[in-house]
Write the structure tokens for this entry.
Amino acid sequence: MADFEPKIVAFVCNWCTYAGADLTGTSRIKYATNVRIIRFPCTGRIDYMLLLKAFDEGADGIIVSGCHPNDCHYTSGNFHARRRWIMFRELCDFVGIDINRVLFSWVSAAEGSKWADVVNTTVTRIRELGPYTEYQKVAKHPIREVTNG
Amino acid sequence: MSKIGVFVCHCGENISATVDCAKVAETAAGYDGVVYSIDYKYMCSDPGQSLIKSAIIEKGLTGVVVASCSPRMHEPTFRKACAEAGLNPYMCEMANLREHCSWVHEKGDATTEKAIDLVRILVEKVKKNHSLNAIKVPVTKTALVIGGGIAGIQASLDIANSGHKVILIERDPSIGGHMSQLSETFPTLDCSQCILTPRMVEVAQHENITLYTYAELESLEGFVGNFKAKIRRKSKSLDEKICTGCGQCTTKCPVKKIPSEFNEGLGKRTAIYVPFPQAVPNKPVIDRVNCTYYIKGKCKVCEIVCPTKAIRFDQEDTIVEAEVGAIVVATGFTVKQPDFFPEYGFGKYPDVITGLQFERLASASGPTLGEIRRPSDGKVPEKIVFIACAGSRDPAKGIPYCSKICCMYIAKHAMLYQHKVHGGKSYVFYMDIRAGGKMYEEFVRRAIEDDGVNYIRGRVSRIYEKNGKLIVKGADTLLGAMPVDIDADMVVLATAGIANEGSEELAQKLHTSYDSYHFFSEAHPKLKPVETNTAGIFLAGACQSPKDIPESVAMASGAAVKVACLFSQDELTREPLIAVVNRQAAPVFSSCVGCFLCVSACPYQAIEKEEIKNRTGEVIKTIAKVNPGLCQGCGTCVAFCRTKSIDIQGYTHEEMYSEVMALLNEY
Ligand SMILES: Cc1cc2nc3c(=O)[nH]c(=O)nc-3n(C[C@H](O)[C@H](O)[C@H](O)COP(=O)(O)OP(=O)(O)OC[C@H]3O[C@@H](n4cnc5c(N)ncnc54)[C@H](O)[C@@H]3O)c2cc1C
Ligand code: SF4
Ligand code: SF4
């Protein structure tokens, strides 16, 4: 397991966490290379089916991150995201998806070092958990068609 | 078939020091649909941009991925370059190889691998992108200003002076707001009326301003640039056009004992009245609640004495409809009133008064003509106590915030008292002195050092009456909480500044948000202090939180500039990154099932219901419809929609799923 490199996907909002991750860069703070960021306008836009899709595609861990409560660029998108997240978590737990593989956090545009911490913590955690083979076993190999509306 | 071009930037050495840019370009060249891929030292430079432009033209590119710095930095640059070469700007995406990769990782294979992945994600996305066109909406260049206090006055004048029409509506019979009630103003002690009245007159006379006093907003529809407001003009029972403001009616009206709102109940007024001598407009209104004619059906003295026959008992409220392009909310604040301070005997002892009442006592035009005389018996108080933070900074009273203006006006009040009552003794009980502002701290020091006001740091627990004196029981925390009892003749409470009653209803009419204290919410606490979350609606003055005059005026001018910016265009251009509900051919029309979950999800009330009718006009389906003027593009509705009928341009399901699927592909 020593050389297992977890595949981590980050779903982040444009205004806070994406900008925060930009600041990590401008501040030259180093972090693990395992994460790939996907930009959304707002965490409110994140359809949690996308998380399942990411697991389907072989992700070992996922980060969802947006603006802190009350700081949402669109006032309340992050609250909707959080509320849906709570439900989605329960659902995942129920169907047996390992919820420790998803990290939900708030990283503001000013929290460059926090972003590095979030990534590093997640990488360490997922490294301990190992590859998500259980999911990949039950997941049909991804059907390569676009899930369009 | 997609023809994608990939342009990998070295950013000098910023990217190339840790990422093998040539390898990234080479790998990308092998992707499906990529017909051109190259790396270059500086993509944002003129030659770099030319490289992109000529590739678009020569290779007939349908999409571009620039792999360089953060899109938050150069997305507009590259999209513009694409547009110049004839490619729709929304067919250009950026992979963030600098901030998200080269700057945060060491040189090595893993870093280059990551860069390659980031490029692939965006290549897959751009293949699914659609050409989008900027949204254009027309602008009605008239502003509606709600509230005629100093903030509303300033905003109206600034907008009017920039050449645009303004409709100013004020709930009371006169404009002026709280500032018109003030005696003198800190930190200069200049007379409030003297500096305010000329502005009030300017408003009334400005050719670009239509003033409706005694009027309120009835309803509002529409969106930025295109609002439709209904304004209720309450009946003044008077034909304003022929009234000359001679004042015969107000002197002859037999109902003379109504507590005057303007004088905070310390003076009286008649049933037909002008709130104060300098009122604008200086014409009376009949207060129907107190008028004998409306109560008993007879009197009409005013009608008889009016030389121009201007009284109209049967006049009704009228509704004025106005089309406006922008709105400034300047409805101000109010102060906490009786019953709130049972421990201070407010409402029980007539000589326990509020700061605003003190303003009226100190005002030359007030009920005592500027002499400090106590309400109960008209005596000049020899000892006076001012209590700061009456309600403010008191979570138990539901007002944890600082009202901000009180520390300063208490210093002013104590100073005015010392100037007017020679030999009088004044005490101030305070928690902290908050005097941040130009010449503010100096002002407070002047009160203490030059005028001998006694500042005692501590709270007052109780006030009660004994032998005709008000016993103020306090403690001095700087002397180890030593009890201090003062036998005062008068007590002034600096009552908390709070939101106007009904402010939340107004916010709901305007579709803007308000905070937990019912003050209007700004769009961003630091960077958008005068904007609201509703495009085209701005805030000025104390309606957003308690503030003093200089701040209110500055905010009003800020809001006016925002309005003028909006009005500087004939059409508003907006990014087309907004939600749309799908439409299909009959008989389905749309996969939307009309559950309207999205309506409740949208923070901007941007989703409406649309009725689809058949030829005979019968409604056959009701579906959701996004108003492009209001939608801000957050996408919350998209995640909510159970039938995936609503999608957001620029971040569509197709695009986002493509990114996820590309992401882990060969990783
Ligand atoms: C006791 C006291 C002393 C003060 N002394 C000073 C001082 O010395 N120096 C200083 O700088 N500041 C002082 N202030 C602060 C000052 O009063 C405010 O900064 C200023 O009044 C704020 O102006 P505004 O226009 O935002 O609000 P307001 O003055 O409250 O005006 C709001 C206006 O909107 C109208 N309105 C409200 N709701 C509606 C509606 N729904 N539709 C239409 N119209 C509506 C109101 O009738 C009012 O005319 C003092 C305040 C108090 C309480
Ligand atoms: S949530 Fe979807 S289905 Fe429901 S009304 Fe909105 S667009 Fe239609
Ligand atoms: S994208 Fe956001 S603002 Fe636009 S309609 Fe949907 S929820 Fe409302």
